[in-house]
C-alpha cells in the first residue's frame, strides 16, 4: 500500500479516538487538536517507516500521552517562570516579602497541586482528596470506600510521591 494512502487511513481511523483521549486529559479543545496534529505530523515525518499493525494504535496512544505530558511540562515551566518573576507583585505594587505575595504564591501552588491531583488515577485521586481535603483518617477512608487500610496507605503513598516529584516550590 502507498505510504500516503496508509497515512490517510491511519488518520481517518484514529484521529477521533486520539482527540477524545487528549481532550479528556486536557479539557481544552484547541490544545487537544494541536496535540493530535503534532502526533500525526511526527508520524508523517517518518512516513517511509509506517507499518500498519495491531501495535499501531498503541504507538499512537503512547505518542499522544507523551505529547500531553510535554504540554503540561511546558505549562508548568511557564507558570514557574511567572511566579519566580512574580508579575502579580509588580502589578499590585507590593514586594515579594509581603503577606500579599505569600497569598499569591499559595494560590499559584494550589492551582498547580490541583492539576497534579487531576492526573492521578481515579481511585488514587479519591483517596487523596478524602485524606487531604475532607481530613478523613485512613480507617475512615477504608470503611467509606470498602477497601483495606493498607490499600488506602498505598494510594496515599503513590499520590504523595507523584506530587512531590512534580510540584516545584519556588
Task: Give structural attributes.
2 domains; mainly alpha; RNA_pol_sigma70_bacteroid; 79% helix; 170 residues; Arc Repressor Mutant, subunit A; transcription regulation; Rna Polymerase Sigma Factor, Chain: A; elongated; DNA binding; sigma factor activity; single chain; sigma factor
End-to-end separation: 54 Å
Give the class from helix and strand content and strand pairing: mainly alpha
- Our count of helices gives 8
Principal-axes geometry comes out as: elongated
Total discrete domains: 2
Unreliable stretches:
none
CATH C-level class of the largest domain: Mainly Alpha
Alpha carbon gyration radius? 21 Å
Largest sheet: none
Number of strands: 0
What would CATH call the architecture of the largest domain? Orthogonal Bundle
GO molecular function: DNA binding; sigma factor activity
Protein name: RNA polymerase sigma-70 factor
GO biological process, one term: DNA-templated transcription initiation
InterPro entries: RNA_pol_sigma-70-like, RNA_pol_sigma-70_dom, RNA_pol_sigma70_bacteroid, RNA_pol_sigma70_r2, RNA_pol_sigma70_r4_t2, RNA_pol_sigma_r2, RNA_pol_sigma_r3/r4-like, WH-like_DNA-bd_sf
Amino acid at each position: 500500500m502507498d505510504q500516503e494512502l496508509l497515512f490517510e487511513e491511519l488518520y481517518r481511523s484514529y484521529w477521533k479516538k486520539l482527540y477524545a483521549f487528549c481532550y479528556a486529559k486536557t479539557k481544552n479543545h484547541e490544545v487537544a487538536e494541536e496535540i493530535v496534529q503534532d502526533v500525526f505530523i511526527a508520524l508523517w515525518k517518518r512516513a517511509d517507516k509506517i507499518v500498519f499493525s495491531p501495535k499501531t494504535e498503541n504507538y499512537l496512544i503512547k505518542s499522544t500521552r507523551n505529547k500531553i505530558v510535554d504540554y503540561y511540562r511546558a505549562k508548568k515551566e511557564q507558570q514557574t517562570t511567572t511566579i519566580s518573576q512574580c508579575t502579580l507583585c509588580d502589578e499590585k505594587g507590593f514586594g515579594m516579602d509581603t503577606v500579599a505575595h505569600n497569598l499569591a504564591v499559595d494560590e499559584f501552588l494550589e492551582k498547580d497541586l490541583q492539576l497534579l491531583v487531576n492526573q492521578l488515577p481515579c481511585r488514587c485521586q479519591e483517596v487523596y482528596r478524602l485524606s487531604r481535603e475532607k481530613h478523613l483518617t485512613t480507617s475512615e477512608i477504608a470503611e467509606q470506600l470498602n477497601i483495606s487500610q493498607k490499600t488506602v496507605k498505598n494510594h496515599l503513598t503513590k499520590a504523595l510521591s507523584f506530587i512531590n516529584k512534580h510540584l516545584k516550590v519556588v
